[in-house]
Amino acid sequence: MNLKTIATLASYELRASLRNRWFALYALAFTVLAVALSSLSLSGAGMFGFAGFGRTAASLINLVLLIVPLMGLTIGAQSLAGEREQGTLAYLLAQPVSRIEVLLGKLVGLGGALLAALLLGFGLSAAVIAWQGGAVEAGRYGALVVLSLMLALATLSLGIFISAWSRSGALAVGLALFAWLLLVFVGDLGLMGTAMAMKLHISTLFTLTLLNPLQVFKIATVNSLRASLEILGPAGIYATRTYGDALNALLIGVLAVWVGLPMVGAYVRFRLEGDF
Amino acid sequence: MTGKVVRFNRIIKNQYLSVFISGLILLAGVGQSAAQENGFDLTAAIAAAQPGATIDVPAGVYYGDLAVDKPLHLRGAVAADGSRPVIDGQGKGTVVVITAPNVILENFVIRNSGNVIDKEDGGITVEDAEDVQLLNNRLEDVLYGIRGINAHRLVIRGNYITGKELDIARRGDGLRLWQSEECIVEGNTVERVRDAIFWFSDGTTVRDNTFHDNRYGVHMMYTDKMLIEDNFMVGNSVGAYLMYSKNVLIQRNTFQQNRGPSGYGTALKDMDGVTVQDNYYLDNRVGLFFDNSPGNVDISHPIERNVLAFNDIGVLMMPAVKRNLLRQNTFLDNLEQVGVKGGGSNPGDELGGNSWDGNYWSDYVGYDATGEGVGDIAYHAESLFENIADRQPNLRLFFFSPAQQAIDFAAKAFPVIKPKPKLTDETPEMTPILPAALPQSVQAQSRIGWLAAAMLLGALAMFSGQIRYWILGIRVRPASEITPLPDIQYPIPVPPILKGHHMLTIQNLTKRYPRPGRAWWSDETVTAVDDLSFELPVGTSIALWGVNGAGKTTVLKCLLGLLASEGELHLNGYDLRRDGRTARRFLGYVPQELAFHNDLSVAESCRFYARLKNVGDERIPVVLAQVGLTGQEKKAVGALSGGMKQRLALALALLADPPVLLLDEPTSNLDEATRDDFIDLLVGLRDAGKTLLFTSHYADEVTRLAERVLILRDGRLVADGAPAAVLGGPRTADSRPQGVHPLSSTESAIIDPAPVATGLPSAVRGLPSVVNGLPSPVAFSLEEPVR
Questions:
Q1: Who contacts B468 (Cβ-Cβ below 8 Å, separation ≥6)?
Q2: Could you give the 3-state DSSP secondary structure of residue B394?
Q3: B404-446 tens-digit pLDDT
């Protein structure tokens, strides 16, 4: 594995993504919405010079949960399957590169593109907050950005996994959208229904929630913004009491696993399935 | 207990013993008794004083417990630096015990009480004594703070009370009034204690105090006619919990960040005759909590002009709470503006017994066309998710997630599951109503502006693409800067080639594809290359010849590691499968389907692949000139013609000056004239010592370029020999104008040799003679159309 090769591949991916029309659309949508939400939410809180955990953070979390996984999953899904269809992947693999380099190059490059989009959206949003005099602590806002990046990488990794296992680009994007729907809505709704119907124990509910990287991001964000999870009701209090100071490490660890595991799965397919 | 205190004082009064104890303390190094130093004996002074006298106590440390059993004014001398006389309890019992009326205790530091919670060890106890005043004292390191038992009209003003460093459950109460009526608690700060308790103490006023980091800021029971105003209750588990009392006024307080497990700003349980007005409830778990208040059916509670902002729940009510009249309150960005604890049978029914008209709701989306400051359409608090979460608090875990919004959206879109509104405000205010006094909250220092600038700079850098190259070590350098990479030499050093060594060795290469359209559980395969073996000596040129589907491209792809295959593949000693990455550095590949990244320019493509091959940029103009693409550097690859792409492919293959070239139909995209030149170029490369393996449809190309031809049929090698022998005599230039004869015509000839034999070039007719030696009838059966 050669870092220069990975950097070369990553820089191509980064550049291609930033020039990609879909990606530009996502980044623009994210930026516009982030700025609009911050601006709107602060119009109420500004009168106190005291934002609390008002709409700004909550709406930004919601925005991230909707758009960032969509970005990560679809961009990841297009990556391998699309290039395989076009034949560019085969030509690339005929060069002196190894497959893990190609895979890591994709992750780093596309991750960089996602980072660029996040920096733009969160940066402008923070500028609006600063301009309107909102008292959002910079460290906590930074934590929101970093956790968003982790979520972006986790969903990107999942997208690449889907891409590696899909025969065509269209199938991969379709599966990615399905996965997005599953993570954003269906999984949570199913879990809520199960919790109500089965009277799930609070620890079971919390553990099951950790299976969804989106919820892990959300819980980690709330925890870093509030320093506890009380706001999430009894299950949050349970988590705070059970895991205490280790909670942040646990949540970030789960997100890291979500970044790594699908990549391993993608590599298994990409490596063993030799045909291009 | 009082008896015991008195007894101990009697012992202290014994002068000899007092001196002895002081001496002991001196010896122990705890500190010299200031009482000794300044010669002032506080206990003796109290004993000697007439009732009603004022004793001015000089600076120093005095030791308790101190009993004040006659009406006296004890006044500590405040030094210029603010320090005051200290009364130290030495870690035992209660420091000061007042049992006489009209005592004034002023300007003392009272510290170091005992630690026994069931004896209520503390700072000051006022017992069975009326009209006592405790002014401007500082109580620290005490278990309980100030206790008033049967101490009517006790005044506690300007004191600072903080407890011992204990877990909240083991702390004592900072203030405790018990059967002490008409007391005034004013201007005190009470921190890090358990509760401030007011029980059976009618007519008490609690004003302008700060309660911070306690369990209950104010814990009140059976205390009628209480006034709670202008207090700041921040960071407690509960701000004020009021129970079983009548006629209480709560006004102008700020309740902030009271976020314990119940976490109420103000909780009212079984209260009657309460007025709550002009308070701020900020960032509590619950702003206002109502439990059976009012309890009396004839009583209603005005709840007016309060600001409930940023709480998890603004107002929370137990089911069936009625007769609270909420008006002119501001509900601002509470996660849940109003909730019913436990959900109730139907939140709408449960809250309907209260009046909600005329409040400001930050989530109101109506309008005010008439301009009177009141919304023209009613405000409805309705959220299916909130109703569910009220009933199943565990599901609050899903707050802030799109699923929550999906539920609410579904409820709005499909009225079948739309909940009955929790409450309706027929005349919602359009603007927040803020009490005159703003909350005492402190605005955090915010560096968000700097963060914004940093992030935007980062985004700018990435988007502008300047720093992108810089970060990742790839930069477009002007030509003048280009220097060869030091570790690269041309040609790239290849392991020494042994005499008679084969550059490329292929043994028993077999490639099976899954049969197209097979069921997913089936392992049926089709064999594309079947047990193929051949060698490529250094500097030779070999053509693979065969119909489409014969397996030519498959062989090349297997060599490149693009296809998994069986058999042994070696490139000059490298195992192409195991060391594929390294071995591919010695392979230049021109694919049949020219798939490049179309968004790159010719120069960018070259740079990209040069870096992958670890080649310096100075090779780029060389190879571009070699294939005749000089001057096309800035063209986008996507805009190139097929022929140009073919040249680019060759240029890229030549970047690292590899000893072996794998060419898959290298001239298929070229027109006649350029083909000729291109073949010349390849001939030149061959003559320069490169080893060539190529596939082709063109007989003349094979004849000119190849020294050997391998004929594949269905993945098997069916013939191997010099082109002249295999394909017929060498084609001459004069035959070319008649048309190049792709394999298609040849093949059609061979399928049925008889009719073909006429009118075909000799090169084609020569073919059967070679393959006649094969066991089966020679037939390049065309099972698929040839392009």
A1: A11, A14, A15, A112, B461, B462
A2: helix
A3: 888 888 887 887 767 778 889 999 999 888 876 665 554 555 6
Quick one: pLDDT band at residue A44, thresholds 50, 70, 90? Answer: low
Residues A67, A69, A72, CA angle at the centre, nearest 5°? 110
Average pLDDT over residues B467-471: 45
Residue extents of the structural domains in chain A: 3-272
Structure letter (DSSP) for residue B487: T
For β-strands B246-251 and B272-277, DSSP reports them as parallel
The whole-angstrom separation of Cα B205 and Cα B570 is 96
Dihedral sign of CA atoms B668, B669, B672, B676 in order = negative
Q: Is A230 on the interface with B (CB under 8 A)?
A: yes
Contact check, Cβ <8 Å, B403/A98: no
One-character DSSP codes across A221-270: HHHHHHSS-GGGHHHHHHHHHHHTTHHHHHHHHHHHHHHHHHHHHHHHHH
Res. B778: pLDDT tops 70:
no
Q: Contacts for B458-462 with beta carbons within 8 Å, 24 or more apart?
A: B458/A115, B458/A116, B458/A119, B458/A123, B459/A116, B459/A119, B459/A120, B459/A123, B462/A14, B462/A18, B462/A112, B462/A113, B462/A115, B462/A116, B462/A119
Residue B431: closest C-alpha in chain A: A44
Whether the per-residue pLDDT at B776 is higher than 70: the answer is no
Question: Which residue from A minimizes the CA distance to B514?
Answer: A275
Residue of chain A whose Cα is closest to the Cα of B444: A135
Determine the Cα–Cα distance for residues B111 and B94; give it in Å rounded to an integer: 10
pLDDT band at B766 (very low <50, low <70, confident <90, very high): very low
pLDDT at position B724 is 80
Residue A193 touches partner B, C-beta closer than 8 Å: no
Residues whose CB is less than 8 angstroms from the CB of residue B443 and which lie 6 or more positions away in sequence, other chains included: A49, A50, A135
Closest-CA residue in chain A for B307? A48
Supply B752's token pair: 């049925």
Q: What is the DSSP track for A90-158?
A: HHHHTSS--HHHHHHHHHHHHHHHHHHHHHHHHHHHHHHHHHTT----HHHHHHHHHHHHHHHHHHHHH
Contact between A52 and B434 using a beta-carbon 8 Å cutoff: no
The DSSP letter of residue B581 is: H
- pLDDT band at residue B96 under the 50/70/90 scheme: very high
* pLDDT at residue B145 in the model: 95
Structure tokens at B178: 């018990």
Contact A205 B585 (CB under 8 A): no
Percent of chain B with pLDDT over 90: 37
Which of A50, A122, A192 lies nearest to residue B455, judging by beta carbons?
A: A122
pLDDT for position A55: 62
Mean pLDDT of chain B: 80
The DSSP line for B81-139 is TS---EEE-TTSS-SEEE-STT-EEES-EEE-----GGGT-EEEEEES--S-EEES-EE
Contact B181, B159 (CB under 8 A): no
What are the Cα distances from residue B21, in Å, to A210, B28, B94, B483?
63, 10, 19, 90
d(CA A137, CA A118) in angstroms, rounded, equals 18
Cβ–Cβ gap B612/A137 under 8 Å = no
What ipTM does this complex have? 0.90
Per the model's pLDDT, the better-predicted residue between B3 and B203 turns out to be: B203
Assign B488 to helix, strand or coil: coil
A1 touching B (Cβ < 8 Å): no
Helix (H) or strand (E) holding B535: strand B525-537
Record: contact B401-A200, CB cut-off 8 A? no
pLDDT above 50: residue B13: no
- Cβ of B333 within 8 Å of Cβ of A55? The answer is yes
Residues of A within 8 A of B660 (CB-CB) are none
